[in-house]
Design brief:
heterotrimer; A: mainly alpha; two-stranded antiparallel sheet; 15 helices; 1% strand; globular; B: mainly alpha; ABC transporter involved in vitamin B12 uptake, BtuC; 13 helices; transmembrane helix (chain A); transmembrane (chain A); branched-chain amino acid transmembrane transporter activity (chain A); Branched-chain amino acid ABC transporter permease (chain A)
């Protein structure tokens, strides 16, 4: 009960934060009713997916300060569990979702134990390495389709809530929106919880944390498992939303880096950071691509603009956009 | 037995030659890391720009691609310094994540600028002293001249860097900056300039590597992608900042990716199923990552690393 | 006075709206998804140029061309409406491809889709088209799985890898029986051992499976078959393994730069095969020749087009000339296929006389395009409407070309299969390195 109260307790945030958050939440709820293009809808779904990815990444990468660049392996585990169970045994999404999450968490414990002996850059590169090894395994494992991937057959009747197959995108929107709010509330509890406190302590000074009796190795592994559960859940959703998955698509290094990038750019280690990062990067990438992406003679321009903005934010405020907001606030209060 | 030995010798030679190339590519990354603790995601793009510099020198002036080496070194040096003053300097104020996303932006930027200017087609040089040359050693061990030259160049570059770091004042200043930037500043070492010098040197070595690789590899805007991950694994395996570590780790990586052809040799010996080798090839980079992972777990600072 | 202007304006407006009503539609939008950045950007450019040339011909009268779509300006049955391509870049990313497909269908209101080169992207885009009930024509994704799904809104003009691989083994058997121009019959054993190496994503692993399956009955299955990572810097260990059995025949499937690297590696390892065959993509792209130059001599590739087709088909030569004046290059397999798929769209629209999805679906299932119309040497275009290969063009055929040195010293793709279309004597065995 106490935990539940804590999860809904946002009282330590400034009032402006909460006003903006409520306004955004209301906007997200009514968005499908507003006039919008379907590209905007697809972009919003992407935004919500990457927000949840980012929230997950934030537990270990932001609060824990361990830069994880291997999250795509868990997207793959989640997506493949759902797809395989649906194709082979006709099991609905809501059954395969918790199974996929458990498998991913199990795997995260297995590799997390040795992984967290490493620090800093060594850790970051080791996460990439494990992710790429798992991708190689998936690509040659014929039971799950190998490199050819899996295609989920369309069901005769739509909408199908059990199997998450809809003709209109707004159904998917509300499903992922529910994930988004559940994730946000869980994270609000997480940051105030014992493990959240421990992680921040470890991030600031690991030696001191240990001298205070915190089992830093175990704390990191637990946070890593939480991150994994988030990512695997969205992976399962991805499989149903896209109908088609391949290792090259759901387990690529690009995806791992993108997940980390959004959270880092928004502001690692703050509750709103990953959401802000995704809210800026996802629409920017999609719309720049749609506007300039295919102009003859200017191929590549959209990604040049996109990367320039990333570099500019990194150079201006290395703590990300949330860092800029904090900086403005500080200068106001001074 | 003879067939086994020959195949084994072929596999090992190929592995060592490729290892020399990996070592050369990784050298620039390790210099930058050694001095300033920053992982450069755009490393492969520096390589790509070195290759384009070599290509343009060769095609515009009609020269042997080898003349591209000094050009690419200069271009790489300038690029390294420009990146330092334009971007990296600002990233250093923030935590490690900032360096990652900043240099990731740089990677996308350089790749797409190259796409905009040079187009997407893979291009390569057709004639030159080293292009497409190889010779046969003994009973059939093929040595590719480009890779051998890469090996020679990397030995030279490693030797030069070693000399710079150990025997010159600049090198001592670089090492001091690497060990403790703040203390170095108190001693009157211009750390800012040392950092930019590290980026310049890193850029120059990888630019030269690019111009040399051009003799064998076709260049296109995405070519850096092929080498970046391997370069990361190589540097980390050797230990960040260790120059000799990068060289040794390069050779190890080269041998690891030749495990499938070594299996070929064994299957000649024991008459195993040849088709299995197909499966091994699919995992050849996984061997590298797995070896990295295992070595790291038991020796968390890399083979020759001296700092975390 | 002001009221007078207003009245006049209204009158003009009314007149215009009447006119447009009479014509019904004046512009038909077709959404096109190609990879214009990323690893396959070079192929994306080829595809785009091919499709744009076809639209140019369809929208204007070009009497000199012997093609139905060149005779009219726009789509005749739709009152001369012009076709407009809305091209988007999917960067080789399936998720982005699906999002852009939704944009094209719902926001830009395209009547149909075309694309997307990568089989993986085509799959997700086809799933979107199926969900929204919008027709999609695919020109260049050759994964057999695409037409095995029973999709009702998906048609493919190009032959798929099953057909192409079948062609390969028909060709190899014909080669031993002396059916190939310039080669005497010989014992099948001379083609053994066979080895194959395919890149290990969706497409390559399908080709690998097809080679093993189709080669088996004829006793021509590969002794070693590898899958390799295309995005990797080194192929020398693959080369070593392949050469360890001293292969006579080498079969490949590679996307782009990896095909070039593979040939360079084989050359540096001094390989001496009698025959090298590539499954299109990387092996028939213009940069394969420009990057490798004379090292390509004797290499075979399956394709659907070669400028040499112009010698047997007048219309191919005419279109190739138009393409060359426009882009400075000859048509390649990719651009010819994009051209042909766009042409199929024109015929479907012409037949439907409507832009309603149901009418288009019906028209696509019924359309029959004659061989004379096409620039590719197929027997025509006719899609299957039943059976396991739903929506596949049954009249498409593959070709096998061999790079040979032309009179001007440039490398050109001579046709060696189908046997009756051969434009030159085949070089066999090739000299190797």
């Amino acid at each position: 009960m106490e935990a539940l109260r804590q999860a809904f307790d946002f009282s330590d945030f400034p009032r402006t934060d909460l006003c903006v958050a409520v306004a955004v939440a209301v906007f997200l709820f009514v968005f499908p009713a507003l006039p919008h293009s379907s590209f905007a809808m697809a972009t919003m779904i992407q935004f919500l997916m990457f927000s949840v990815y980012g929230m997950g990444w934030n537990t270990i990468g932001g609060y824990g300060g361990q830069v994880d660049l291997g999250k795509a392996q868990y997207v793959g585990i989640g997506a493949y569990t759902t797809a395989v169970m649906q194709i082979r045994w006709d099991l609905p999404f809501w059954v395969s979702l918790p199974i996929g999450m458990s498998l991913a968490v199990g795997w995260s414990f297995i590799i997390g134990y040795p992984l967290f002996r490493l620090r800093g850059h060594y850790f970051a590169i080791a996460t990439i390495a494990t992710s790429l090894i798992l991708k190689d395994v998936f690509e040659s494992w014929s039971f799950i389709g190998g490199a050819r991937g899996l295609k989920i057959p369309l069901r005769a009747e739509m909408p199908d809530f059990w199997f998450l197959q809809f003709r209109e995108d707004y159904y998917y929107y509300y499903v992922i929106l529910a994930f988004f709010f559940v994730g946000l509330i869980y994270l609000n509890w997480f940051r105030q919880s014992r493990i959240g406190m421990q992680l921040r302590c470890i991030k600031d000074n690991e030696e001191m944390a240990r001298s205070l009796g915190i089992d830093s190795h175990w704390a990191k592994i637990k946070a890593y498992a939480v991150a994994t559960a988030f990512v695997a859940a969205v992976g399962s959703f991805h499989a149903c939303y896209n109908f088609n998955i391949e290792p090259e698509d759901v387990m690529s290094l690009d995806l791992s880096v993108l997940i980390a990038l959004m959270a880092m750019l928004g502001g690692a280690g703050s509750l709103w950071g990953p959401i802000i990062g995704a809210a800026i990067l996802v629409p920017m990438k999609n719309y720049l691509g749609a506007w300039f992406g295919a102009k003859a003679g200017l191929i590549g321009l959209d990604l040049i603009i996109y990367s320039t903005i990333i570099m500019a934010i990194a150079a201006f405020e290395p703590r990300g956009i949330w860092g800029i907001v904090t900086r403005i606030r500080q200068s106001r209060s001074d | 037995m003879d067939a086994f030995l020959l195949q084994m010798a072929k596999a090992i030679t190929a592995g060592l030659l490729m290892g020399l190339v990996f070592g050369l590519v990784a050298l620039g990354l390790t210099i930058i890391f050694g001095v300033m603790d920053i992982v450069n995601f755009a490393h492969g793009e520096f390589l790509m720009i070195g290759m384009y510099a070599g290509l343009l020198t060769a095609t515009v002036f009609g020269l042997d691609p080898l003349f591209g080496l000094p050009v690419a070194a200069v271009v790489g040096f300038a690029l390294g310094i420009a990146c330092y003053y334009g971007l990296v300097r600002f990233l250093l104020r923030g935590p490690m994540v900032a360096q990652l996303f900043g240099t990731f932006g740089l990677m996308l930027f350089l790749r797409n600028v190259a796409l905009l200017i040079m187009g997407a087609d893979p291009q390569s040089v057709h004639s030159g002293l080293l292009v497409g040359k190889s010779f046969v050693l003994g009973p059939g061990i093929v040595i590719e001249v480009t890779k051998l030259a890469a090996g020679g160049l990397s030995l030279l570059a490693f030797g030069f860097m070693w000399w710079v770091m150990k025997r010159t004042k600049i090198g001592k200043a670089l090492t001091a900056t690497a060990l403790d930037a703040q203390a170095a500043r108190y001693m009157g070492i211009p750390t800012e300039r040392m950092n930019s010098l590290a980026w310049g040197l890193g850029g120059a070595t990888v630019g030269m590597a690019g111009a040399l690789l051009l003799n064998f590899w076709p260049v296109e805007p995405n070519v850096g992608l092929l080498f970046t991950m391997i370069a990361f694994a190589t540097v980390a395996l050797g230990g960040f900042g260790s120059i000799s570590g990068a060289a040794v780790a390069g050779l190890i990586v080269g041998l690891l990716i030749n495990i499938p052809s070594m299996w070929d040799a064994f299957s000649m010996l024991i008459g195993g199923d040849r088709l299995q080798v197909g499966l091994l090839h699919q995992f050849k980079y996984s061997f590298v990552y797995a070896a990295y992972f295992l070595i790291m777990v038991f020796r968390p600072r890399g083979l020759f690393g001296w700092k975390h | 006075m002001a009221r007078g202007y207003l009245m006049a304006a209204l009158a003009v407006f009314a007149a215009f709206s009447l006119c447009t009503n009479a014509i019904a539609v004046d512009e038909i939008k077709i959404g096109v998804l190609y990879p214009l950045t990323g690893g396959a950007a070079a192929e994306g450019k080829e595809l785009r140029d091919g499709a744009e040339l076809a639209v140019e011909i369809a929208n204007n009268v070009k009497t000199e061309l012997d093609m139905a779509m060149a005779k009219n300006s726009g789509i005749k049955s739709l009152g001369g409406a012009k076709i407009k391509l809305i091209i988007q870049d999917h960067q080789g990313n399936p998720q982005l491809g699906a999002d852009l497909a939704k944009k094209l269908i719902q926001d830009d209101k395209v009547v149909g889709l075309m694309g997307a080169y990568h089989s993986a992207v085509t799959k997700t885009v086809a799933a979107v088209a199926e969900r929204y009930g919008v027709p999609m024509i695919n020109e260049s994704s050759t994964s057999p799985a695409l037409t095995k799904e029973g999709l009702k809104w998906f048609w493919r003009t190009t032959p798929h890898d099953g057909t192409f691989t079948n062609d390969l083994f028909l060709f190899l058997q014909g080669l031993t029986q002396g059916k190939v121009r310039g080669v005497k019959p010989f014992d099948k054993k001379e083609l053994l051992p066979i080895v194959s190496a395919c890149e290990k994503t969706e497409w390559g692993s399908n080709v690998d499976a097809a080679i093993k399956e189709i080669g088996k009955p004829s006793g021509l299955e590969p002794q070693i078959s590898l899958l390799y990572a295309a995005k990797a810097p080194d192929l020398s260990s693959e080369g070593q393994s392949l050469l360890s059995v001293k292969p006579a025949t080498m079969l490949f499937a590679g996307y782009g730069a990896d095909a070039i690297l593979m040939i360079k590696t084989l050359k540096s390892l001094k390989a001496k095969p009698k025959l090298i065959w590539g499954q299109n993509a990387g092996f028939e792209s213009p940069e394969f020749v420009s990057a490798l130059g004379e090292d390509t001599e004797g290499i075979l590739t399956r394709t659907v087009f070669s400028p040499r087709v112009g010698e047997v088909k007048k219309v191919s030569a005419q279109v190739n000339n138009l393409y060359k004046t426009k882009t400075g290059r000859d048509l390649s397999g990719a651009s010819a296929r994009a051209f042909t798929a766009t042409q199929a769209w024109v015929h479907i629209l012409e037949k439907a006389g409507s832009t309603k999805p149901q009418d288009l679906q019906k028209a696509a299932n019924e359309v029959k395009i004659d061989a004379d119309e096409l620039i590719v040497p197929w027997q025509g275009i006719k899609f299957t409407t039943t059976g396991p290969d739903l929506g596949q063009n049954v009249l498409g055929t593959g070709m096998i070309g061999q790079y040979q040195k032309g009179k001007d010293g440039k490398m050109i793709l001579e046709i060696v299969y189908p046997f009756e279309l051969a434009t030159a004597d085949m070089i066999f065995p090739i000299k190797g390195w």
